[in-house]
Amino acid sequence: MVDQKASICPSIVYRPLRPSDIGVLERIHCDLFPIRYESEFFLNAVSGRDIVSWGAVDCSRPDGRSDELIGFVTARIVLASDSEIGDMLRYDSSRTDQTLVYILTLGVVESYRNLGIATSLIQEVIKYGSSIPTCQAVYLHVIAYNDPAIHFYKKMSFKCVRRLSGFYYIQGQHYDSYLFVYYVNGGRSPCSPLDIVATVAAFVRSLFKLMVTRLWKNDEKASRWSKCKETSCLLTTQNKRILTSESNGCQCV
């Protein structure tokens, strides 16, 4: 088990993983995760083949361990059209170059937790995704019982968009997972708050136009009715005058 004591004032540096990290990387994964990873995963992680990664080291550690991993994050670029969250994105499906960054693993050894290392590692991934013009979001899965991780990603402004039943199968048992998404480069969900505001604004405009039209029509009707009423009164008065003249035996010229 990797259980090194953290320095009183550690000097944390972040860098890409290297081939020399593979042994420590495997041990930390074994200590932290219930899932066992293939050797190919670690080889790809430290060599940059299909996986991008960052490691954290404590430069103030003694005994020649100043470049030994104390934390890491691994991720992969995937096509948006091939991802499981395609329906959670508002993007142009006709563009085949649009991508996502999928976080594979994130871990910090126990003695170095609560120092902001995990936060810095995730920020590296977000910065990386944001630097890719075609990238729409960074996303990941969290096993349903991992409350600290769920709280952490919510604090990092990731959105929990879906619960996947039986996503993990560990030691003969199925576990649900939560899907978290962090949108970058203008990417957003099909029903984002911006879309809701735009829809409400359009409805208000439409309602306002309808009210104005109805008021205008009512005014026009009232004007016509007023004219008709005046004409009716005039005719009635004239008829009365004619009748009165006739009754007196006089003619009106």
UniProtKB/TrEMBL annotation:
Coiled coil: none annotated. Pfam families: Acetyltransf_1 (PF00583). One of its GO terms (biological process) is chromosome segregation. GO terms for molecular function: histone acetyltransferase activity; protein N-terminal-methionine acetyltransferase activity. Transmembrane segments: none annotated. Keywords: Acyltransferase, Chromatin regulator, Chromosome partition, Transferase. Residues 12-185 form the N-acetyltransferase domain. Belongs to the acetyltransferase family. NAA60 subfamily. This is N-alpha-acetyltransferase 60. InterPro entries: Acyl_CoA_acyltransferase (IPR016181), GNAT_dom (IPR000182), NAA60-like (IPR045141). PANTHER family: N-ALPHA-ACETYLTRANSFERASE 60 (PTHR14744). It catalyses: L-lysyl-[protein] + acetyl-CoA = N(6)-acetyl-L-lysyl-[protein] + CoA + H(+); N-terminal L-methionyl-[transmembrane protein] + acetyl-CoA = N-terminal N(alpha)-acetyl-L-methionyl-[transmembrane protein] + CoA + H(+). It is an enzyme of class 2 (transferase). It comes from Macleaya cordata (Five-seeded plume-poppy). Its EC number is 2.3.1.259, 2.3.1.48. One of its GO terms (cellular component) is Golgi membrane.
